[in-house]
């Protein structure tokens, strides 16, 4: 595979910036699907893997080329893995708006005074050369932590201000962008996917 342009199956500007940095070593130019007029795909599946694959195939079909999709979220043990694949719109399940601040408030309300706060950020990245690619590249990263009872830090997005990483003594929202890109669930998945792209797609 010689092309370095890959369509990112997302319209999340912050996610695009993170992934652009993570895949820069391969010389891959990520282009958001929104900039090409490609609508978002449906995400009806219960797992990150299935949704990421569906989004990658959708973007590849519309762009007639290679695509990369990210499906990620927060899994909290005490909530049976919720919010999971519904992380970005968790508050809407309880009548709230689709909004980071409201999602955080909803998470804290659902946890209440639960002592068990173990959680993990999960990221699945899927890359396909075409919508019919029989050999999708799939990578998964997990970042273990625990949910605080109040917000800390102002960097990042989503649940970052609530996700405390014990080994670092900080929430994700208290980390620099460089540290997050080096340690995060997305960084872990990206490292795996970069290796696969080098080996299978012969990029970089």
TrEMBL record:
Its EC top class is: hydrolase
- SUPFAM superfamilies tied to this protein: ITPase-like
Q: How is this protein named in the record?
A: dITP/XTP pyrophosphatase
**Chain positions recorded as substrate binding sites:** 10-15, 72, 157-160, 180, 185-186
This entry carries the following GO cellular component terms, namely: cytosol
Catalytic reaction list: ITP + H2O = IMP + diphosphate + H(+); XTP + H2O = XMP + diphosphate + H(+); dITP + H2O = dIMP + diphosphate + H(+)
- InterPro entries recorded: dITP/XTP_pyrophosphatase, ITPase-like_fam, RdgB/HAM1
The protein's Enzyme Commission number = 3.6.1.66
Which stretch is the leader sequence? none
**Protein's organism:** Caldimonas brevitalea
Required co-factor(s) are: Mg(2+)
Q: Which CDD domains match?
A: HAM1
Q: What does this protein do?
A: Pyrophosphatase that catalyzes the hydrolysis of nucleoside triphosphates to their monophosphate derivatives, with a high preference for the non-canonical purine nucleotides XTP (xanthosine triphosphate), dITP (deoxyinosine triphosphate) and ITP. Seems to function as a house-cleaning enzyme that removes non-canonical purine nucleotides from the nucleotide pool, thus preventing their incorporation into DNA/RNA and avoiding chromosomal lesions.
Q: Name one Pfam family in it.
A: Ham1p_like
Q: Give the cofactor note.
A: Binds 1 Mg(2+) ion per subunit.
**What are the BP-aspect GO terms?**
nucleotide metabolic process; purine nucleoside triphosphate catabolic process
